[in-house]
Automatic annotation (TrEMBL):
Gene3D superfamilies: Tetracycline Repressor, domain 2. One of its GO terms (molecular function) is transcription cis-regulatory region binding. It holds the Pfam family TetR_N. It comes from the Bacteria. Residues 38-57 bind DNA. PROSITE patterns: HTH_TETR_2. Keywords: DNA-binding. The keyword Acyltransferase does not apply. Residues 15-75 form the HTH tetR-type domain. This is TetR/AcrR family transcriptional regulator.
Length: 209
Protein backbone atom coordinates (compact mmCIF):
# COMPACT_ATOMS: atom_id res chain seq x y z
CA UNK A 1 0.00 0.00 0.00
CA UNK A 2 1.32 3.41 -0.96
CA UNK A 3 1.96 5.70 1.97
CA UNK A 4 0.93 9.29 1.27
CA UNK A 5 2.84 11.89 3.22
CA UNK A 6 0.64 14.46 4.84
CA UNK A 7 1.70 18.09 4.63
CA UNK A 8 3.58 19.23 7.71
CA UNK A 9 1.14 21.83 9.00
CA UNK A 10 3.59 23.18 11.54
CA UNK A 11 6.29 23.68 8.91
CA UNK A 12 3.81 25.32 6.55
CA UNK A 13 2.67 27.70 9.28
CA UNK A 14 6.27 28.57 10.17
CA UNK A 15 7.08 29.24 6.52
CA UNK A 16 4.02 31.47 6.14
CA UNK A 17 4.97 33.40 9.28
CA UNK A 18 8.49 33.87 7.92
CA UNK A 19 7.09 35.10 4.60
CA UNK A 20 4.77 37.61 6.31
CA UNK A 21 7.61 38.99 8.41
CA UNK A 22 9.88 39.41 5.37
CA UNK A 23 7.12 41.13 3.39
CA UNK A 24 6.30 43.44 6.29
CA UNK A 25 9.97 44.34 6.72
CA UNK A 26 10.33 45.01 2.99
CA UNK A 27 7.32 47.32 2.94
CA UNK A 28 8.47 49.27 5.99
CA UNK A 29 12.16 49.47 5.08
CA UNK A 30 11.27 50.83 1.63
CA UNK A 31 8.65 53.27 2.93
CA UNK A 32 10.31 54.53 6.12
CA UNK A 33 13.95 53.46 5.87
CA UNK A 34 15.94 50.76 7.62
CA UNK A 35 17.09 52.96 10.48
CA UNK A 36 13.65 54.40 11.23
CA UNK A 37 11.96 51.00 11.33
CA UNK A 38 12.11 48.95 14.52
CA UNK A 39 11.19 45.32 14.91
CA UNK A 40 8.02 46.16 16.81
CA UNK A 41 6.82 48.01 13.71
CA UNK A 42 7.56 44.94 11.61
CA UNK A 43 5.83 42.66 14.11
CA UNK A 44 2.70 44.82 14.17
CA UNK A 45 2.49 44.86 10.38
CA UNK A 46 3.10 41.12 10.09
CA UNK A 47 0.60 40.32 12.85
CA UNK A 48 3.08 38.49 15.06
CA UNK A 49 4.71 39.04 18.43
CA UNK A 50 8.06 40.82 18.30
CA UNK A 51 9.55 37.85 20.17
CA UNK A 52 8.67 35.73 17.13
CA UNK A 53 10.93 37.87 14.95
CA UNK A 54 13.80 37.52 17.42
CA UNK A 55 13.23 33.75 17.54
CA UNK A 56 13.07 33.34 13.74
CA UNK A 57 15.76 35.82 12.64
CA UNK A 58 17.74 36.82 15.71
CA UNK A 59 18.00 40.55 15.03
CA UNK A 60 17.19 43.29 12.52
CA UNK A 61 20.43 42.86 10.55
CA UNK A 62 19.75 39.14 10.04
CA UNK A 63 16.23 39.98 8.92
CA UNK A 64 17.64 42.43 6.36
CA UNK A 65 20.09 39.79 5.12
CA UNK A 66 17.35 37.23 4.53
CA UNK A 67 15.11 39.87 3.00
CA UNK A 68 17.79 40.65 0.43
CA UNK A 69 18.52 36.98 -0.29
CA UNK A 70 14.82 36.19 -0.77
CA UNK A 71 14.35 39.26 -2.97
CA UNK A 72 17.21 38.22 -5.25
CA UNK A 73 15.98 34.63 -5.48
CA UNK A 74 12.31 35.50 -5.81
CA UNK A 75 11.28 32.89 -3.24
CA UNK A 76 12.45 31.19 -0.05
CA UNK A 77 13.66 27.99 -1.73
CA UNK A 78 17.34 27.18 -1.01
CA UNK A 79 18.32 27.10 -4.69
CA UNK A 80 21.42 28.96 -5.89
CA UNK A 81 21.06 31.45 -8.74
CA UNK A 82 23.06 29.32 -11.17
CA UNK A 83 20.78 26.34 -10.46
CA UNK A 84 17.56 28.22 -11.16
CA UNK A 85 15.65 27.48 -14.38
CA UNK A 86 16.00 30.99 -15.85
CA UNK A 87 19.80 30.60 -15.68
CA UNK A 88 20.15 26.94 -16.65
CA UNK A 89 17.69 27.27 -19.54
CA UNK A 90 19.60 30.27 -20.90
CA UNK A 91 23.07 28.71 -20.80
CA UNK A 92 21.68 25.57 -22.44
CA UNK A 93 20.73 27.48 -25.60
CA UNK A 94 22.69 26.55 -28.70
CA UNK A 95 23.80 29.99 -29.93
CA UNK A 96 25.05 33.12 -28.20
CA UNK A 97 22.16 35.31 -29.48
CA UNK A 98 19.62 32.72 -28.34
CA UNK A 99 21.28 32.55 -24.94
CA UNK A 100 21.01 36.33 -24.52
CA UNK A 101 17.38 36.25 -25.62
CA UNK A 102 16.70 33.96 -22.64
CA UNK A 103 19.27 35.34 -20.22
CA UNK A 104 18.54 39.08 -20.31
CA UNK A 105 14.87 38.84 -19.28
CA UNK A 106 15.72 36.42 -16.47
CA UNK A 107 18.54 38.57 -15.14
CA UNK A 108 16.41 41.69 -15.52
CA UNK A 109 13.63 40.11 -13.46
CA UNK A 110 16.13 39.86 -10.60
CA UNK A 111 17.05 43.53 -11.09
CA UNK A 112 13.37 44.53 -10.96
CA UNK A 113 12.95 42.76 -7.63
CA UNK A 114 16.15 44.19 -6.15
CA UNK A 115 15.66 47.78 -7.37
CA UNK A 116 13.19 48.89 -4.66
CA UNK A 117 15.53 47.86 -1.85
CA UNK A 118 18.76 49.32 -3.27
CA UNK A 119 18.40 52.62 -1.43
CA UNK A 120 17.50 50.74 1.74
CA UNK A 121 20.72 48.76 1.50
CA UNK A 122 22.85 51.79 0.70
CA UNK A 123 21.46 53.75 3.66
CA UNK A 124 21.70 50.78 6.02
CA UNK A 125 25.33 50.09 5.09
CA UNK A 126 26.23 53.79 5.42
CA UNK A 127 24.80 54.00 8.94
CA UNK A 128 25.65 50.55 10.24
CA UNK A 129 29.06 49.08 9.34
CA UNK A 130 27.90 45.66 10.53
CA UNK A 131 25.35 45.55 7.71
CA UNK A 132 28.13 45.60 5.10
CA UNK A 133 29.77 42.70 6.90
CA UNK A 134 26.72 40.53 6.24
CA UNK A 135 27.94 39.94 2.67
CA UNK A 136 31.45 38.63 1.93
CA UNK A 137 33.75 41.38 0.73
CA UNK A 138 36.33 39.09 -0.87
CA UNK A 139 33.97 37.73 -3.53
CA UNK A 140 31.39 39.58 -5.61
CA UNK A 141 28.65 37.00 -5.97
CA UNK A 142 26.94 38.93 -8.76
CA UNK A 143 30.17 38.85 -10.76
CA UNK A 144 30.50 35.11 -10.10
CA UNK A 145 27.10 34.57 -11.74
CA UNK A 146 27.88 36.82 -14.72
CA UNK A 147 31.25 35.17 -15.25
CA UNK A 148 29.61 31.73 -15.30
CA UNK A 149 27.22 33.05 -17.96
CA UNK A 150 30.17 34.49 -19.90
CA UNK A 151 32.01 31.17 -19.79
CA UNK A 152 29.00 29.50 -21.36
CA UNK A 153 28.44 32.22 -23.94
CA UNK A 154 31.97 32.22 -25.40
CA UNK A 155 31.61 28.53 -26.29
CA UNK A 156 28.58 29.11 -28.51
CA UNK A 157 28.21 29.85 -32.18
CA UNK A 158 27.28 33.40 -33.02
CA UNK A 159 29.62 34.96 -30.46
CA UNK A 160 31.81 37.84 -31.57
CA UNK A 161 35.16 36.71 -32.90
CA UNK A 162 37.95 37.28 -30.39
CA UNK A 163 35.56 37.63 -27.47
CA UNK A 164 37.17 36.57 -24.21
CA UNK A 165 35.52 35.36 -21.02
CA UNK A 166 36.88 38.38 -19.16
CA UNK A 167 35.39 40.87 -21.62
CA UNK A 168 32.06 39.06 -21.81
CA UNK A 169 31.86 38.87 -18.03
CA UNK A 170 32.64 42.58 -17.68
CA UNK A 171 29.98 43.55 -20.20
CA UNK A 172 27.33 41.35 -18.60
CA UNK A 173 28.32 42.62 -15.15
CA UNK A 174 28.21 46.27 -16.21
CA UNK A 175 25.12 46.35 -18.38
CA UNK A 176 23.04 43.99 -16.25
CA UNK A 177 23.81 45.93 -13.07
CA UNK A 178 21.30 47.26 -10.53
CA UNK A 179 22.91 50.68 -10.79
CA UNK A 180 22.31 50.93 -14.56
CA UNK A 181 18.83 49.46 -14.24
CA UNK A 182 17.91 52.06 -11.62
CA UNK A 183 19.40 54.86 -13.70
CA UNK A 184 17.12 54.08 -16.63
CA UNK A 185 14.00 52.68 -14.94
CA UNK A 186 13.80 54.66 -11.71
CA UNK A 187 15.56 57.89 -12.63
CA UNK A 188 14.75 58.21 -16.35
CA UNK A 189 11.32 56.60 -16.25
CA UNK A 190 11.88 53.72 -18.66
CA UNK A 191 9.48 50.78 -18.47
CA UNK A 192 10.90 47.41 -17.50
CA UNK A 193 10.11 46.04 -20.96
CA UNK A 194 11.95 48.94 -22.61
CA UNK A 195 14.95 48.19 -20.40
CA UNK A 196 14.93 44.49 -21.31
CA UNK A 197 14.77 45.29 -25.03
CA UNK A 198 17.60 47.84 -24.82
CA UNK A 199 19.85 45.67 -22.65
CA UNK A 200 19.34 42.69 -24.96
CA UNK A 201 20.10 44.70 -28.10
CA UNK A 202 23.15 46.30 -26.50
CA UNK A 203 24.60 43.01 -25.34
CA UNK A 204 23.97 41.32 -28.69
CA UNK A 205 25.79 44.18 -30.42
CA UNK A 206 28.74 43.87 -28.06
CA UNK A 207 28.94 40.10 -27.68
CA UNK A 208 27.64 38.57 -30.91
CA UNK A 209 28.51 38.67 -34.58
Amino acid sequence: MTVVKRPNKRAEKAQETRRRIIQAATDLFVADGYGATNLQDVADRAGVAVQTIYFVFGNKRALLKELVDVTIAGDTEPVATMDRPWFTDAVAMRTAPDMLTEYVPGSSAVLARVAPIMRVLEAAAANDPEVSALWPQDEDLRYVVQRAAAEALVTKSGRRRGLTVDEAADLLYGILSPELYLLFVRDRGWSHDHWVKWAGQTLRTQLCT
